[in-house]
Amino acid sequence: MKVHNNTHNHKHYTEQVTVILSVLCAIHCIITPILVVLLPVAATYFEQYHWVEYIIIVSVFVLGTSSILHGYKNHHQNKVPAFIFFVGLMLMCTSVLVKFLFHTNDSTLHLISGIGGVAAGAGQLYNLKLSK
User: Fold this and answer.
1) Other C-beta atoms within 10 Å of 113: how many?
2) In degrees, to the nearest 5, what angle opens at C-alpha 40 toward C-alphas 119 and 105?
3) Do 104 and 47 contact (CB within 8 A), yes or no?
4) Which residues contact 9 (CB under 8 A, 6 or more apart)?
5) Phi (first) and psi of residue 81, to 5 degrees
6) Among 67, 74, 73, which Cα is nearest to 123's?
7) How far, in Å, are 69, 80, 120, 132 from residue 76 at the CA level?
8) pLDDT tens string 68-92
9) What is the distance between the alpha carbons of residues 2 and 22, in angstroms, rounded to a whole number?
10) Tens of pLDDT, residues 115-132
């Protein structure tokens, strides 16, 4: 009778995870200084070209709504992820509308838009958690 040793498979799995985490750490250490330098340039770009922000919000709406509806219909029937997602989406849209209608570029609007983005992402993550 052959006895399987499960500790060998577990050890192999942990070695793979360790290698993946080490590679991710190296990538992080290489990219972070570059992003720190480039983010102010990207912020200036987004300030000049508002249409990029509009495209991002529309794509978040289309793709996020599709994902939320799929999770709701086929997996969990819980409305909380949709509520969190749409509150975030409404915050982002409100920020853009205030900028557009009143031609203002207040840092508070950036904060509101950022909070909206975090809320929309949190709704998506909660939807994913419930769908598993």
Assistant:
1) 21
2) 65
3) no
4) none
5) -60, -40
6) 67
7) 10, 10, 18, 9
8) 999 899 889 999 999 999 999 999 9
9) 36
10) 999 999 999 999 989 988
